[in-house]
Task: structure prediction
Amino acid sequence: MQMSEWDNRLFEFLNKGFTSEALDPIAVAISDPRMWWVTAFCVFCIGLILRKKKWLKTLLICSIALGAADATNTYLLRKSFHRLRPCHQREVTLRAASCGSQFGMPSNHAANGAAVVAAASFFLSRGAVFGVGILAFLVGWSRVYLGVHFPFDVLVGWAVGGIIGMGMARILLKLGTYLKSFR
Result:
């Protein structure tokens, strides 16, 4: 089975075969970018309340990693791949409010989630990283379920985001260590 055949079959299954009216609003909510802002705000508040610099540092580095992943996908990779979203090239069950931009490879939602998980893995406990990882996985699933991405778009997004998140965390940690040497 070729990759495109696998991608199409899995898309058809997740978008048309594995559906439920009860899942529709859940998938829309999970896919809403505001959910990440609410999560970040909660982490920030917990950090302030507990007076934990680690939480605030984690939030800052995760935010920078997310921004780097988002910019890389939007301004570099999508313009290179030129892969149309499924909702722009075929009839799909579109559950999202709109199809989105013309190109969807790689998924920004998936990349952003993976960047946060990868960067957070340097600071948070395994349980916390696992929880954020489940959330990132659900975001990726929701993009296919909603009909705006193929599964391979999401897989590439997770890979790109993971690499960028780990790289940004390492660079920023080394930069922080370097800057401390001047005190």
